[in-house]
Amino acid sequence: MEGEEEAWCQRAWEVLAGAATDALIAWTQDGKVLAWNEGATCLYGYEAREVMGRDMRAEFGIRDSDVWPPASLQGPIALELDRRQKDGTPLVVLAELRPIKGEQGTAIGVAEIGRPASRTLGMARVEQQAVRQHLAAIVESSEDAIVSKSLKGIIQSWNHGAEQIFGYSAQEAIGRPVTMLIPPDRQDEEGRILAAIRAGERVRHYETVRLRKDGQLIQVALSISPVYDNQGRVVAAAKIARDMTTYRAAEQALADSENRLRAIVESVPVVLFAFDADGVLTLLKGRAVEALGLKREGLLGRSFRDLETGPAAGLSAQLERALAGERSTATLGVAGRILEIRWLPVVGPGGTIQGVEGIAIDMTEPRRAQEEALRRSKWESFSALAGGIAHDFNNVLAAIVGNLALARMKLPTDSEAASFIGESENAAMRARGLTRQLLSFAKGDRPARHPVDLASLIESTARFALGGSNVRAHVLVAQDLWKVLGDEGQLSQVINNLVINAQQAMPAGGAVELLARNVSLHGHETALPAGDYVRIDCVDSGMGINEKDVTHVFDPFFTTKSRGSGLGLTTSARIVQDHGGHIEIASRPGEGARVRFYVPRLVKEGRAQEALRSARPSKGRILFMDDEEPIRKVAQAMLTHLGYHVCTVAEGSAAVREYQKNRYDIVILDLTVRDGLGGLGTLERLRGIDPGVVAIVSSGYSSDPVMADHERYGFVAKVPKPYTPEALDAAIAPLLAFRRPASAGI
Predict the structure, then answer these.
(1) What is the pTM of this model?
(2) What is the mean pLDDT of the chain?
């Protein structure tokens, strides 16, 4: 009975299979055909005897990479299959697959029921294939890396963009784990990404760092999507990677540029601004904003049109011209500063003015620097003029003073003529004081430096300067006031000039305050370097000085008084500068003035000179050289009267010849000789004859640096013109006290 049933089933299969128009095929698990009906012959062109028991996958066009028949088939599924007929014609088959199970319930094969796809569907498949090819071409030509990987992170596809970005060829990359592109410190990223993909999530624009083949780290932006099969299951991941290194470098360069520009704007004295077409301020940036005392919060969003008071009126007028299309540069005073404003209209489409942009540059310091340079130029010009005048005038005075002194010496001290001559001498010496005031700021007229006690100097000078006036002096000096190294006479002149100026500023009377204290500067309070200084303030309660004139008070010949030479403060400034100090003034109309100057502290006093011996030395031999005959005559008369043996010559060459013939204890050399060898050149030649020559320099031209620092140039003393017999004797006597005899040959 069982055999009859099997035969009946076989016969029923043959009848049904023969009657069916669909292709009925039974496949074993290893791809062999065990059942084939007439429908299959009609569809593929093969007879049953040609296929039965054979592996027909290659003949049907089934690729080796495709698993056929599907081993994991659990139930019926419908598929579109790409097949090939016996004559090689491509064929699209609509198939339904069902598993064939054995007695144990395990799959032992697959039953396929297939029919040809309609023409429309076939054409759609062809179009889909074309689209796939087109998309493949796009993927391959993309500059971005387009990569697919399995859910285990194994690379499955690799386009040209991936080769360019990561440096690996497709042959080197496909089949390898994608972790080869991930730096060691970021390996945990891959696990999180794959977990999101398995859950069907997309990873959008994830920026991270990846590793090139050459070891270079690059910044990339990743977009990763899940890939689904026909059953809707996630089977892989598709990734697009874009190299962001260049973009980020460009962004960083732009940010650095903006930061540099911002730093420049915030560090230099400029203001960047912009107005819209209605005159409303829309931009205000720059360090100078705070320097001008302005606040952005109160200005931004405010209209600057129709402002009518103070500097704002000028700004409003300039803004109107700019809104009318005029490019211009203008100067405006704001909060005590000088601004140079450059206006640039913003022109839109059709030539319409959309607003105004511009820059305001704080020119206060450059203007002050220009004024200071001009002031220095004036000083230098006047110094040269003063030096020339003083030289000639002092030569004249030298003859006058010398002859008056000689005449006085010839007369009895109690005679009326001697009294008249004495008065003439005093007048001549006052004239010398005028030349010294000119030369006190002439180039090179440096002070004779000695330790000076300013405490007593300030008190005595102020009392003397204000004697007989209706102005009192209030002097407040620190008890431990430091000494300074300087010229006592010149420093007294500075105090005298300041006190006289203060007294003249208070015609109705009042008080001048003189304050002296020790200060230690750190290098930023004034133009002086860091160090210890004595600071003196002279304060009055007079009429004050307006802002325009304050910057010129130290200029030569500048004065705000109806009478005056305009040299007092100029002279004071030069003296203070030559002492290594600094002077400044602060004043406002109706509020008086404060003049302040600094002089460096005497760090260490030099050892005082030994007192001169009371015994007068024996007379010596003097060689005197000067190009002015009247001076030679009066000098010879004075020195002879003092008991010295004197020889006079007109210029340096004659002095050298005379010294070669006769040795002299002391030579007195005029520094400046018009048509011959001057004092400095003469001394050099005399040293060639006698290295121990003792020389005194004399000149009426105090602007020469040799007079300011005579020891540096080899002279042992100096005698400025004009001089009296007493002045000559005071310079010569100490030198002769320790001289070697002139007869000690060489």
Answers:
(1) 0.38
(2) 79
